[in-house]
Amino acid sequence: MRPDPGPAPELGRERRAADRLSVFRWAILGVWATLLIVRVGLASWDPDANLSVLGSVQIASIVVGVVVVVSGLLHSWVLRRRRVDDALGAAVRRFDPTVRLVPAKPTPELRDAVTAEHPEIALADELLWGFGATEASLWQLDGLRAVRVLVIGWDRIVHVALEDGPTPDAAVVALHYIRPDDDGAVASFLVRRALGASRTLGHGQRIEQLVHDLAAERITH
Description:
Elements: H1 11-45, H2 52-95, E1 100-106, H3 108-117, E2 127-131, E3 135-142, E4 145-153, E5 157-163, E6 172-178, E7 184-191, H4 205-219
Antiparallel strand pairs: 1-2, 1-7, 2-3, 3-4, 5-6, 6-7
């Protein structure tokens, strides 16, 4: 299988972006404080002064500040999700350095498949598939520990399909396989757009290429 390049070396760029947001937030706070001091000073010096322009500037600065703070929170949330996926990917690659990582979301069908083999495991909402040379393995984080919740040998997979999902931007990849007890099962999942992302892929070239690669890997085993 064509190996994926792994997580991009973006830690420095992410840190610089976080630093810029921090500087911007402090600058907005400085502007707020300055405008407040100016307003109080003008009101004290001339109680009849027209402060409408200054009020408009204050309102604009408040709006900009709120946007910056919300953007910073969203950015931090995305970075935390990315770090979780990167940590999980690093743990998976300790087992197989050449594994292809595919970030995923579970379907009800996948939850049933995992529960059938491991009823003690509560499947997370963000997962990571590792497609290696001999098997496909499904991973999630349990606290700080990487847990392999499902393992399917390529010789047990009988069909790889691309199916319609619940929405146009959520196509489903289905792995039809034979369980160790020789019963048939399906492990279906949604493909997240990237490590750390929550949005999923719909029908298109990326997911069709993934299904093609998985099907080709199945045939070669």
